[in-house]
Amino acid sequence: MGTINFVWWNLQNFFDTDDDPISRDFEYSSEHGWTIDLYNAKKENLAKAINATHNGQGPELLAVAEIEDDALFEDLIKSMGNPHLNVVKDPFGTSDLRGIDVSMAYDSRKLKVITRQSHVVHLRYRTRDLFEVEFEVLETGETFFVIAGHWPSRSMGKYRTEPLRIAVAEHVAYLVESHVKVEPEDYELLRSQSNLDAIKKKWESKVIVAGDFNDEPIERSVVDHLKATNEIDRVIGSTNNIDGFEKETGRYRAQEVFLYNASWNFVSQPNVGTYFMDTLSSGEKFANRYLVIDQLVVTRGLINGSGLQLDMNSVDIFRDKLVATSSGRPRAFNRKTKQGTSDHLPLTATFIY
User: Fold this and answer.
1) What is the Cα–Cα distance from 40 to 297, expressed in whole angstroms?
2) Domains in the chain: how many in total?
3) 31 pLDDT band (50/70/90 cuts)?
4) How many CB atoms lie within 10 A of CB 248?
5) Residue 144 belongs to a domain with what CATH number?
6) Which range, of 13-27, 98-112, 183-197, averages the lowest pLDDT?
7) How far is CA 139 from each of CA 7, 106, 307, 308, rounded to the nearest angstrom?
8) CA distances (Å), 76 to each of 60, 66, 293, 322, in order?
9) What DSSP element (H or E) covers 76?
10) pLDDT tens for residues 201-259?
11) Reported pTM
12) Backbone angles phi, psi at 312, to 5 degrees
């Protein structure tokens, strides 16, 4: 049996010291006190923390948010001292106003990149990219997709900004459906050939959705629009199986795709979250301040017991003293002390094959 150690982490403004003329990143420039010394201190802290995940083994599949570009990601990985981790180069870069991006890296001993693509949701301002990568497990030849994203912020108020996250959730759901359903024309052809196995195989496609959703697992964008649930039976139970052809292709097209949210269990735990939020700039205060906004969601193919699978018992929030306070809050990087890492905690999991 093989394993793939996975980490998702929002690195909180991991910028270089240069002012990008087309991005709002002046706060992270040498003119504004963000020096190369501070950059290197944060980089080393991040590298040490990432290496400490998975009982010191570190990740073999790493997805991050709030990093300026691939060059910085490569610099971070170099500091980790892992020669087997390779950045998945994104030729499209980012369209975010602040110039922050989502990136991935993989262990070349276990995985190979097949395809990569950036997706942008066009709201008034283009959102941070959704970065989608298709990987192949080298030992088995099995392929899977990872869609990593950093959904719109709550900074202007949770409910005022909720429609933006709903729009992104709908787009992610659309991308997932493109992997688990065949096109209408193909469906009709396969029906004429009585080839139901091809439909079933597509339905079991393996897709990982990871990211900083800026909403919790129980909220509308995640439950009603991404269709992510904690009910395993809703995802792989008999009511969600494909056991025959529909007479009308439209009924197949309309079949809902339910996903399993592996982060849901953290919601009911006291003082546990990947983020700590007391007050927004809008003045909105939160009664429950530990928020589970960094999440791991998978399709049924990753929990049905066949091929590459998510070890559901492995999903955890990394709360080592390198990244968290004694009370479990994220330990953000402090420019004065040069201690800390990010205002988010890493999310870890293991996939088995």
Assistant:
1) 33
2) 1
3) low
4) 9
5) 3.60.10.10
6) 13-27
7) 21, 15, 12, 11
8) 15, 13, 24, 16
9) helix 70-80
10) 999 999 999 999 999 999 999 999 999 999 999 999 999 999 999 999 999 999 999 99
11) 0.93
12) -65, -25
> Contact, 8 vs 285, CB < 8 A?
no
Instruction: Give the position of tokens 């339910």.
Output: 258
For helices 184-192 and 196-203, give the axis angle rounded to 10 degrees.
140
Instruction: State the maximum Cα–Cα separation within the chain, in Å, rounded to a whole number.
Output: 69
| Domain hosting residue 278, numbered range | 3-352
Q: Where are the beta strands (DSSP E) in the chain?
A: 3-14, 61-67, 85-87, 101-107, 111-119, 130-137, 143-150, 207-212, 228-229, 259-261, 275-276, 290-291, 294-298, 309-317, 347-352
pLDDT tens digits along 145-167: 999 999 998 878 888 899 999 99
Query: Is the CB of residue 79 less than 8 Å from the CB of residue 93?
Result: no
User: Contact 154/280 with Cβ under 8 angstroms?
Assistant: yes
Q: Residues with Cβ < 8 Å from 268, sequence gap 6 or more?
A: none
Q: Which amino acid is at 313?
A: N
Judge whether residue 95 has pLDDT over 70.
Answer: no
